[in-house]
Design goal:
This protein is an alpha/beta fold and 584 residues long. The protein has two domains: 18-324, ABC transporter type 1, transmembrane domain (ABC transporter transmembrane region fold); 344-579, Rossmann fold (3-Layer(aba) Sandwich). Helices cover 62% and strands 10% of the residues. Bound molecules: adenosine-5'-triphosphate (ATP).
């Protein structure tokens, strides 16, 4: 079940430090340096052009041949173009590398989070962090930072050359540019905030859509398509609103620089014209200066764009870091252990899902010897599934002791503990892929013989024989092409291939017909001859032959015994049995 979490995780006031962003660039620094050099050569070629233009004009004036200066001008254009294109390709390459690294790192961390943390997160939002936010990183790193470095070089070069032409005109230009620069700097934090909210809205959209797709049939059966569409649309509109804010502030910054250049142009033309008239400057130098002024447009624009992208990247990085900063746990190991059965004890176990949540286990104690079949029964919400979650250490119990094979589960290395357990969830999930892939999911190295044995033990031979491609038939997304009973037996076979020392089976017999239920009962009884089986029974019919039955109620254990003993001794059990017509 997806847990709702109303509050967003992000505090829009905080931002990720640029240092974190640069950390993503470090592995790519070789290519980056080459790309940077190409960018520098490209901008040097570009900067040479106005100088060439000045030579051409001067050649005209002095009556010399213009062929030489024109050839140099052409060479500068061509070299500049080729080098810029090469540099751009290298930068894109770096960007792809950065995105891949960021995705690998994020995904590797995401699959190692603690179950308790994942409960709070929305899967769709997590997905958008891996796909969307990492893409934003690429933009900031390539188009943002790298182009900005090239732009700074062009800018500095242009300013130096302009100073060389006429210092008065340069001061006029710089005054205008500095005023506008200050304005743009004020706009940047607003862009980052709006961008973070835009990314959050995209994440929210993913989360809502994921919820609808997960419960696709329920959505249709409830006639709530329109309402779900409206919720997703609302998130999309929110993303649009925030995106428009980003665009609005961004274009304000862009237009400010454009206006600045125009003002500078008019000022330079007026003052420069006066200086030409007074003989302080010649026309060719004024033309070159004006050309340099227009050369400022692109790098200033790039710098502003770079600053905007940097804000976007920092917002995205913040969302990535939020996940990466959550604690990870040791990953499990696939493959089978030894089938040597282990026992389990719960001693005064106290557990709640969160500090503000009610106690789910309030002193749970019971004992399961190695081997045989033990059933957990009790009303819904009694905390039966929680017993399994604690055994798998999806959550940490707050009090009491849980042992597996006589050893405190806190002393087991996590991977080893999980390897000793086979776990069949209540909704017996089957993943997309072929039947074989599903069966081998927990033990990829199992032999054909082991596979055949697990199939036989779980009575899946009929199914395999019936499927068009046998074991290699795809089972559909989430196993939709299998029946409920088949899915459950596939999940059991999968768990058995791991040769568990303790099989945890959260069975949902309610979805099985009589034939399938009988099969399941046979399978469980057979498995229990080889390993310890702990089964949560929602229907008592499956467990009347259990070696012991633990009756849970209201966060504790009420009674333990065999079916016959409990019918005689425990009122709740008798009631449960009576409602299911078993006492007669
Ligand atoms: P059922 O027979 O209906 O499956 P159960 O006996 O297995 O019930 P549990 O699933 O263990 O009961 O749940 C016990 C209580 O813990 C319930 O009140 C439930 O709301 C709560 N609970 C279960 N899982 C979580 C979770 N991940 N986060 C918060 N609370 C939870």
């Amino acid at each position: 079940m997806t847990q709702e979490r109303p509050e967003g995780m992000v505090d829009p006031g905080e931002k990720a430090p640029i240092r974190d962003l640069l950390a993503y660039l470090r592995p790519q620094r070789g290519v980056l340096v080459i790309g940077g050099v190409l960018a520098l050569v490209g901008s040097a070629a570009a900067l040479a052009m106005p100088q060439m233009a000045q030579f051409v004009v001067e050649a005209f004036g002095s009556g010399r041949s213009i062929a030489g200066p024109l050839i140099w001008l052409t060479v500068a254009v061509l070299v500049g173009a080729v080098i810029s294109a090469g540099g751009a390709y290298l930068m894109e390459r770096t960007g792809e590398g950065v995105v891949m690294e960021a995705r690998k790192k994020l995904v590797a961390h995401m699959l190692r989070l603690k179950v308790a943390d994942v409960d709070r997160l929305k899967p769709g939002d997590l997905l958008s962090r891996v796909t969307g936010d990492t893409t934003m990183l690429r933009q900031v790193l390539t188009n943002g930072i790298v182009e900005s470095i090239g732009a700074v070089f062009t800018l500095v070069g242009a300013v130096v050359l302009m100073a060389n032409k006429d210092i008065v005109l340069l001061l006029v230009t710089l005054l205008v540019v500095v005023v506008i620069g200050g304005m743009v700097a004020l706009i940047m934090p607003k862009i980052q905030k709006a961008q973070l909210q835009a990314q959050e809205a995209v994440g929210e959209m993913g989360a809502v859509l994921d919820r609808s797709l997960q419960a696709y049939r329920t959505v249709k059966a409830s006639g709530s398509e329109e309402r779900e569409i409206a919720t997703v649309t609302e998130a999309a509109e929110q993303a649009r609103r925030r995106g428009l804010q980003v665009a609005g502030w961004g274009s304000l910054a862009g237009v400010s620089t454009w206006v600045a250049i125009q003002i500078a142009f008019v000022a330079v033309l007026a003052i420069g014209g006066a200086r030409v008239a007074s003989g302080a400057l010649d026309v060719a130098a004024l033309i070159a200066f004006l050309l340099y002024l227009f050369y400022l447009v692109a790098p200033i624009g790039q710098l502003v764009q770079g600053a905007v992208l940097l804000q976007n990247g920092l917002a995205a990085l913040k969302r990535i870091k939020e996940i990466e900063e959550l604690p990870a746990e040791e990953p499990g190991v696939p493959g089978g252990g030894t089938a040597e059965p282990v026992g389990v004890t719960f001693e005064d176990v106290v557990f709640r899902y969160g500090e503000d949540r009610p106690l789910v286990h309030n002193g749970v104690s019971f004992e399961v010897p190695p081997g045989g079949l033990t059933a957990l029964v009790g009303p819904s919400g009694a905390g039966k599934s929680t017993v399994f979650a604690l055994l798998e250490r999806f959550y940490e119990h707050q009090g009491g002791t849980i042992t597996v094979g006589g050893r405190d589960i806190r002393d087991w290395p996590l991977a080893e503990l999980r390897q000793a357990l086979g776990y069949v969830e209540q909704d017996a999930p089957v993943l997309a892929g072929t039947l074989r892939e599903n069966l081998l999911f927990a033990a990829p190295d199992a032999t054909e013989e082991e596979l055949a044995r697990a199939i036989a033990r779980t009575r899946l031979d009929d199914l395999v024989a019936r499927l068009p491609d046998g074991l290699d038939t795809p089972v559909g997304h989430r196993g939709v092409l299998l029946s409920g009973g088949e899915r459950q037996r596939v999940a059991i076979a999968r768990a058995l291939l791991r040769k568990p020392r303790l099989l945890l089976l959260d069975e949902a017999t309610s979805q099985l017909d009589a034939v399938n239920e009988l099969r399941l009962r046979e399978v469980i009884a057979e498995v229990a001859t080889e390993t310890t089986v702990l089964v949560i029974a929602h229907r008592l019919s499956t467990v009347t032959n259990a070696d012991r039955i633990v009756v849970m109620e209201g966060g504790g254990v009420r009674a333990v015994g065999t079916h016959d003993e409990l019918v005689g001794a425990d009122e709740l059990y008798r009631e449960l049995a009576a409602t299911q017509f078993l006492t007669s």
